[in-house]
């Protein structure tokens, strides 16, 4: 679905990634295909409904694929798409930046408070 | 303020960047110091109160510095810290990824819908 209000790719990407779950789900899916029940086990504080909504959002953005298996017992798999795999190192870089700059960011805050 | 619940740097970074304004403010501040009134002009849809809250959040994270000038007329400047300037290319990379993968992400969604 095209968003007629915004055409800024950064804004669109951040909207898709906003909130707690998208990056956590990327993290848990980076090593390969997982079942819905695996993802619930990885994220014990997420509700069934919330996990389902978040996965659907990632699916709609083309980051995650959902595959239904009709065999018994019937189950559903989730995996990153090629685009989703390309996103993982970019998100890792944000985490690395957050850690690497922790000292200087704290310093900037204290300097600001003293001013 | 330390968050005792989470110690994942990616989650912390994404929490700080979530929402529409943090990345837009990074974008508008990347070329140098701006006054509050400049930032309001750059973002005409943001309210005074919201812009003030968002800038305070970035200030508390050590991404932005706020400088009060006591001269007449009194005004307040905002600028990126060193850590904030390091963040700009990482956010740009997310926007580039979003644009570069648009076709394949759309394709993955259509393939999923057809399955």
UniProtKB/TrEMBL annotation, chains A, B:
Domain HTH hxlR-type positions: 8-106
Keywords assigned by UniProt, alphabetized: DNA-binding, Transcription, Transcription regulation
Pfam families in UniProt: HxlR (PF01638)
SUPFAM superfamilies for the chain: Winged helix' DNA-binding domain
InterPro entries registered for this protein in UniProt: ArsR-like_HTH (IPR011991), HTH_HxlR (IPR002577), WH-like_DNA-bd_sf (IPR036388), WH_DNA-bd_sf (IPR036390)
Domain of life per record: Bacteria
Membrane among keywords: no
Protein name as annotated: Winged helix-turn-helix transcriptional regulator
Annotated source species: Sphingoaurantiacus capsulatus
Organism classification: Bacteria, Pseudomonadati, Pseudomonadota, Alphaproteobacteria, Sphingomonadales
């Amino acid at each position: 679905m095209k968003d007629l209000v915004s055409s800024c790719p950064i804004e669109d990407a951040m909207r898709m990634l906003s909130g707690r779950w998208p990056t956590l789900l990327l993290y848990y899916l980076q090593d390969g295909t997982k079942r819905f029940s695996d993802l619930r086990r990885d994220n014990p504080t997420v509700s069934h409904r919330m996990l389902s909504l978040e996965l659907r959002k990632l699916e709609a953005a083309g980051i995650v694929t959902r595959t239904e298996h009709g065999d018994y017992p019937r189950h559903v798999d989730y995996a990153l798409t090629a685009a989703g795999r390309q996103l993982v190192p970019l998100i890792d870089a944000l985490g690395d930046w957050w850690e690497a700059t922790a000292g200087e960011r704290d310093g900037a805050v204290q300097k600001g408070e003293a001013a």
